[in-house]
Amino acid sequence: MAIELGHFALVLAFAIACVSAIGGYFYWRSGERIALVLGQSAVLQFILVAIAFAALIQAFVKSDFSLALAVNNSHSLKPLIFKISGVWGNHEGSMLLWILILVAFGAMVATFGRRLPSDLMTLVLATQSLLVAAFAGFTLFTSNPFERVVPAPFEGNDLNPVLQDIGLAVHPPLLYMGYVGFSVCFSFAIAALISGRIDQAWARWVRPWTMLSWTFLTLGIAMGSYWAYYELGWGGWWFWDPVENASFMPWLAGTALLHSALVMEKRNALKIWTIFLSIITFSLSLLGTFLVRSGILTSVHTFASDPTRGLVILTLLALVIGGAFVLFALRASSLRQGGLFAPVSREGALILNNLFLASALGAVLVGTLYPLLLDALTGTTISVGAPFFNLTFGALMSPLLLVLPFGPLLAWKRADIVGAAQRLIGAAALAVSCTILVAGLGGVSISLAPLGLLLGFWVAFGAIAELIDRSKMGRIPPSESWRRLIGLPRSTWSTALAHFGIGVTVLGIVATSAWETELVTTLNPGDNVELSGYVIAFDSLAQVPGPNYVADEGHFTVTSPAGDTRPLIAERRTYVASGMPTTEAAIETYYFSQLYLQLGEPLEATQVIRVWHKPFITLIWFGAVLMAAAGVLSLSDRRYRIGLPRTGDGTVRAPAE
Amino acid sequence: MRPSDQFPRPARRLFLASIPVVVVVGLVGTFAVALNDRSTDLPSVLVNRPAPNFTLPPILATGVPGLGRADLLGQVSVVNVFASWCIPCRDEHPLLVELKERTGVRLFGVNLKDEESNATAFLEELGNPYDAIGADRDGRASIDWGVYGVPETFLVGADGLVLRRHVGPLDRASLDEFVAAIAREKDPR
User: Fold this and answer.
1) In this complex, which of A298, A307, A520 lies closest to B169 when CB atoms are compared?
2) CB pair distance less than 8 Å for A329 and B14
3) Residue B45 falls within a domain, yes or no?
4) Residue A304 has pLDDT above 70, yes or no
């Protein structure tokens, strides 16, 4: 009964979204009333889809195997958390999660966007509704999660064991919140193009949504990377897998959008480009969804490949993205650009940032799609691997990182590059000495390591230099500069924190690539091995039953160079229902470094053991968390809370600098 | 407006702004082709020709011997080119295990441009269906086989002639074709 109720709720949401979209586009000039109706409709869509989603969750939790989806993806012995996360560990359920987040953003716009002019609001919500209608329709007609099985089996087929992990409970929702959040920017862009409201006020309204989505996407990607790192058991944290790229491309575009919207908000320049980025960011999210859901690319993320489903989603994609760009072509050509500035200025620096990010995005896009295009055009199948991405992406990111610390120190309109360089001398000196120190201690194992370290330290210290400079530290009494530091706008703190986070991530990547050590050996219980000063003792091997698997547990004791000992358990599991084996690596963190221990297959009487020492690897994710924290900090900035400007007539107050 | 402008400014803008539309149309077109035409059986100059001459060393930790042309003679065999860095190979691997189980055919692996430790870890994680594995560290032997994407799978007759070639990961349909072809070879009636 609950299943049918959920199904009905989704159908109703679909119908309401259709009506909302049509009504919105026809009557967007009609003022307050239509905006109010669409707002209520957005909230209603959210409630209905939430009911549909809740229906699925209860079926999984109660192990209701009359539901086809539960049969295929659940098992009565599965722990509760994995029963819940199993709802979106498959094609149909993940589409519903996608829609749930889409309607949640729609409802949020309706709730928090009360100050928006009613025509813009109506158009934004109409576009959101159009997206809801498209994807709810796709789900209902080609991949209905509410299908029943008669007769119901007694037991389910279980979820893919690799997905039975806390990572599945966190990674897709975060990632989708990022992906789907950019739909708001997309809708704003469409609304701006239709209504002609392309001004500074528009940029100010769009920026918090961009920031929110970007924050979620940053966390989602970082979480996905950490999950792959500990679950896949190879100790790698980024594979340039097409689906990883699919999530990384909107991130690059979104990062560019954050910066270009800043220029538009402050200086009324880069308008066409910002609108373009808003459209492209969400288009890339859709492309990601398409690549994953259609099975056109084979990947660890592909749940199901069904050509018909692929064609339908491709058609949707073509209509949404193609339609947006046609509108863009018709309207953008008549836009007037404003806000003149000199090449050396904050605007100039932000344009440079956008150029590099867009080129990097282009490189990743080409690398991801090239095999696919080649296959379609010539029938040749190839695989573009990590070397291509590392080379092109690295080559494009290095100059960006090099100029990054200058950006925040430059003034708008026309800046003094020599002055900015002088203020960065301290950071540069500190970065060089840290690099020499670290490279000296660690030894140079790969030739680019010192360059990477230098860039990482430079970006990190450069970010702090801005705070020091703004607080006049060292030039005025400490108490006074402390007061200034505290009093800096949160947006300044946020910029510094985000840039510092990038530096930290770069340092983690460089350190772990340059100084990682690895050992593969066979051990018997009672044996010892040593790796990078850590002594690993293999204590015992035991067979332990889990809830829906049996595991071989290897117990180890690790003595660190500092002398403390810690117990580690690495597992090798075989899942009962599917017979699939997985490995659960033991990971122990020492400050920012990790010891990664994996129990391989038994080889005659002994066990194959693989151990990695990964120095400073956690910095990679820690940096991402700092970036996300910066996003949250920026969202709490007072300019988003109070004193929103009325429509853009050029009266936006100068930033408090 | 500068005199050198070929178009009046708005028209040039329209032209620039239309580029994304053209790109989208082009991409959608190729995606549609790619979705419809998923066949990965490629014509190969090698088909119905003798398999090339090669000798490859084993990967010690896997415990199975290396591979050379001599191993292919005598009975029908399947040669699969794989690598741990190749994501479609992960996808395909269970099907290879299944092929081995269903037909008992001699299944040989050519491990392309791979670290020994990574290849071992890959097989430890997913199981090793291969009777012998040749480590093709520099890719020389794979070039002789005409491999240009990983994975690729060949069916080789008892007389050493290449009978069939499949480029890209095996799927359910191509697996069944292989099973049928193996059965035909073993029992020519």
Assistant:
1) A298
2) yes
3) no
4) no
Give me the pLDDT at residue A231, please: 80
Q: Do residues B89 and B169 both lie within one domain?
A: yes
Kind and range of the H or E run holding B164: strand B162-167
Which stretches of chain B sit within 8 Å of chain A by CB?
10-11, 13-14, 16-18, 20-21, 24-25, 27-28, 30-38, 40, 42, 61, 63, 85-88, 90-91, 117-118, 120-121, 124-125, 127, 148-150, 167-169
Q: Which position has the higher pLDDT, A580 or A395?
A: A395
pLDDT on residue A289? 78
Question: In chain A, which residue's Cα lies nearest the Cα of B122?
Answer: A234
Give pLDDT tens digits for A537-552.
999 888 888 888 888 8
**Same domain for B135 and B70:** yes
Pair type for strands B132-136 and B67-68? unpaired
Q: Residue A230: what pLDDT? A: 85
Rama region for A502: left / alpha / beta (φ>0; ψ in -120 to 50; rest): alpha
- The reply to whether B92 and B156 lie within a common domain is yes
Min Cα distance A172 → chain B (Å) is 20
B164 DSSP β-pair partners = B155
Whether residue B32 is found in the same domain as residue B107: no
Residues B31 and B84 in one domain: no
**Within an 8 Å CB–CB cutoff, is residue A280 touching chain B?**
yes
- Count of structural domains, chain B: 2
Asked if A381 is an interface residue toward chain B (Cβ–Cβ < 8 A), one would say: yes
Give the residue among B126, B175, B6, B50 at the shortest CA–CA distance from A232: B126
pLDDT at A301 over 60: no
Same domain, B178 and B88: yes
Q: DSSP alpha helices (H): ranges in chain B?
A: 9-36, 87-103, 116-126, 140-144, 172-186
- Return the closest-CA partner of residue A358 out of A259, A433, A455: A259
Contact A333 B121 (CB under 8 A): no
Q: Which of A39-53, A136-150, B165-179 has the highest mean pLDDT?
A: A39-53
Domain that holds residue B136: 55-186
- For the segment A188-219, what is each residue's pLDDT rounded down to a tens digit? 999 999 998 888 889 988 999 999 999 999 99
| A300: chain B residues, CB-CB within 8 Å | 87, 90-91
- The CATH number of residue B168's host domain is 3.40.30.10
Task: List, for residues A100-141, the tens digit of each pLDDT value.
Answer: 999 999 999 999 887 889 999 999 999 999 999 999 999 999
The whole-number pLDDT of residue A59 equals: 93
* CA-wise closest residue to A135 among A400, A316, A9, A276: A316
Does residue B67 sit within a domain? yes
Residue B134 sits in the same domain as residue B59 = yes
Sign of CA dihedral B165, B168, B174, B178: positive
A and B: number of Cβ contacts within 8 A: 122
Q: How far apart are CA A9 and CA A11, in angstroms?
A: 5
The CA radius of gyration of chain A, in Å to the nearest whole number, is 26
Same domain, B145 and B174: yes
Residue B118 lies in a domain: yes
State yes or no: ipTM above 0.85: no
Domain membership of residue B42 (yes or no) is no
Verify whether the Cβ–Cβ distance A520 to B17 is below 8 Å: no
User: pLDDT per residue over B83-117, tens digit each?
Assistant: 888 878 888 899 999 999 888 889 999 998 888 88
A640 CB within 8 Å of a chain B CB: no
- Quick check: A233 and B125 CB within 8 A? yes
